[in-house]
Each structure stands twice: as C-alpha cells, then as structure tokens.
Write a structure and sequence with these properties.
Number of domains: 2
Order of helices and strands: EEEHEEEEHEEEHHEHEHEHEHEHEHEHHE
Number of helices: 12
Structural class: alpha/beta
Radius of gyration: 20 Å
CATH topology of the largest domain: Quinone Oxidoreductase, Chain A, domain 1
Length: about 375
C-alpha cells in the first residue's frame, strides 16, 4: 500500500565544539517534498489511519526554515531526521482502517485524534505519573514518522476515539486542533491560573490564542493581555483577550501588576520586558522553543517576590479528555482558530513557498487529506 506523504530531509552536520548539539545545531539545508511511501506490515501495537485533517504546527514550520547565517534548521525541539527523511506532522484527525493484533480499545471505522508524545511507561518519571517529562519520550513527526500522509501508521497508545462527537465538518476541524489546545491547557495548569489573576501572553499563534481562551473561560483569569507583533494575529486574537498590543505599545504601557506570564512566541527577551511587574508569587511559563538563552535582569526581584519560572511541555495527564469535554459542552470553540485549509499535500507545498502567509495571514492552517469520511 502506498501513501502520499510530506517528507523532510536534511544534511546532518553537527556544529563543532557543542556538547550534545540540538537539532538546530545538527541539521542544515532542509528540503521538503511529497513522496509515495510504501507502508510495511502493521506493527502489533499500532493502528493504520486514513488521515482526514492534519494541523500545521510552528515546530513543523521551524523544521523547514533555516537560520540565514548558518543554514541550520530553526527548530530546537527534539528531532531525528534519517537519510531517508522524516514524515512530519503531529496534530490531526483520521479514520482507523486497520488495527494491530495487540490493539483492543479501537476498531476499524473509529474516528481518532492523537497525542504526540510516545512515552515509555517504565522510567522513574513515568512511574510517578509525570508523562509529559518521560525520560525516553519520542515525539511524533519529529523522532518517529508523523501524520502528514494519506495513510499513516500510529502507535495505538496515542489515539483517542472521538467517533461519538465527530459529526460535522466543524467537529472534524475542531478535533484536529485538540493537541495544541492541550499544550495551552497544561500551561494554564502549570501556572495555576485562578480567579483574580492578571495574565500576560506573548504570542498569538494557535497555542497563544488557546491559552487566552482557556485563561478566561475555564481558569477564570480576571484580565488577559496578549502581546503580538503581527497585525493580523492581533486582530484575530482580540475576541479572547481584554487588552492586545504590539511590542512597542506594550513596552510603553504594560499592566501595573501581573500574576502569570506565558511565553508562547519564542522571543525570550519578552521575559525582561515584563519581569519587574510580576507580582509576589507570580508564575512564568516558557512554552515556545527557539534555542535562545534566557537572561534575567532582575534576579533580586525574583528572590524577594518568590517568582517561579517553569518550562511547560506536553498535553498528557488528562488534558485531551478535558479539552474534548469542554468542546462537547460548547465551552471551547476549537474550530474558530482555523484560518486556512489546504487540499492535499501538493497544495500544502505550494502554500509553503510563500511562508510569510503562515505568519501574516493565518492562525491555524489545516491540510485536508480526505473528505469522503466527513459527514455532508
């Protein structure tokens, strides 16, 4: 069986003098192409899925983009790109066409969406139930072939059966966005947002917008401020926040006191832009990866006020279940972040030739691989 898939290839050339270089210091000169991949025999613990919608993540974009000075990819997220290439993509929804012999919780015909962190269940961190930080985790679409393909094989442990709530095209588009919403949800949990909190979010991409939605509608923040340099994304995010700024306007007139900061843009200079206004016992979460160093100018302020800085990764430990329940109850309009749909992998590659459109004209971009399974 053949599957038309979106595959990235890159030259492996680790930078000299760097201990354990990251992907942004290892892979250079990436190329992306549509290839016909032949599917092997189905693994006993995997499911074979005909993809319907798949979502483009910033990490996918950064895998394809390069540092103009060095030629290395921009993404610093864990990744392994073999010589034969890596099928990218880790957000989406599809229909099960076959199940491995060890799979008991799913059957052919089920509509599923996917977590993207493959955990071991055996390391000391997993044994404590802290799956987002599994020591042996592998990331779908980065360290294992992903879901940007017509037919894909996915570990069954990642799949959530959403057949009961996938009734309309709107539902399918919404459920394709559960993974980034789960990342935002975990960030809100990690920063313990509660009623009365003033929240500042840097970045109005999909995760930033979901963080704003969740902060207000689910976690009860009293005020949500969003900082975003791109005009389209500021306009797009405005319904879900109380105040929205570009960098200059925010620097000129920031909120007097802030309880929670969530950095979802990758520009770590933002932390110093707000740090001295973070309240006593304030919480800061870093979500977006850029490979940059974090430098703080006000360490004394941090010590005096017991300010916490946390890295926030993942969407496990119940976030998917909660997000799906919130959507089903009408409290989280996941579909509203979708701004463009590309029909198939070839159309997606054409779209990527004008990369500026992703940032300047879109929030969430979906690829539609099949429409036959979507109710009319």
């Amino acid at each position: 069986m053949k599957s038309k898939s979106i595959v990235i290839k890159a030259e492996k050339s680790p930078m000299h003098g760097i201990h354990k270089p990251g992907p942004h210091q290892t892979y250079k000169n990436p190329t992306v192409a549509v290839e016909d991949r032949i599917l092997s025999d189905l693994d006993p613990d995997e499911i074979r899925v005909r993809m319907i919608y798949a979502g483009l993540c910033g990490t996918d974009v950064h895998l394809m983009e390069t540092n103009p000075e060095t030629g290395y990819i921009r993404s610093s997220a864990p990744a392994s790109i073999p010589e034969t290439g890596r099928i990218i993509g880790h957000e989406g929804i599809g229909k099960v066409v076959a199940v491995g012999k060890n799979v008991r919780h799913l059957q052919a015909g089920a509509i599923v969406t996917f977590e993207s962190i493959i955990v071991c269940h055996y390391c000391d961190v997993c044994r404590k139930g802290q799956f987002n930080q599994c020591r042996n985790a592998k990331l779908l679409g980065l360290e294992k072939d992903g879901i940007f393909g017509e037919i894909v094989d996915v570990p069954a442990m990642l799949a959530h059966d959403v057949t009961a709530i996938a009734r309309t095209d709107q539902d399918f588009k919404a459920i394709a966005c559960v993974e980034p919403a789960g990342v935002a949800y975990v960030a809100c949990q990690n920063t313990r947002i509660t009623g009365g909190d003033v929240v500042v979010i840097f970045g109005a991409g999909p995760i930033g917008v979901f963080t704003a939605m969740l902060s207000k509608t689910v976690f009860g923040a009293s005020a949500v401020h969003v900082v975003e340099p791109v005009a389209f994304r500021r306009d797009f995010a405005s319904p879900w926040c109380d105040h929205i700024y570009d960098i200059e306007a925010f620097s000129a007139n920031p909120p007097e006191s802030v309880d929670v900061v969530i950095e979802a843009s990758g520009d770590l200079r933002n932390i110093n832009r707000i740090f001295r206004r973070v309240n006593a016992n304030g919480r800061i979460a870093l979500l977006a990866r850029s490979g940059e160093s974090l430098v703080l100018d006000a360490t004394d302020h941090m010590i005096t006020n017991a300010i916490s800085i946390i890295g926030s990764r993942g969407h496990l430990c119940g976030a998917f279940t909660d997000i799906l329940t919130l959507y089903k109850q009408g409290r989280l309009p996941l579909h509203q972040i979708v701004t463009s749909v590309m029909d198939g992998p070839d159309a997606f590659l054409d779209f990527m030739k004008a990369e500026s459109r992703i940032l300047n004209e879109n929030c969430k971009v979906l690829i539609r691989f099949a429409s036959d399974d979507i109710p009319s």
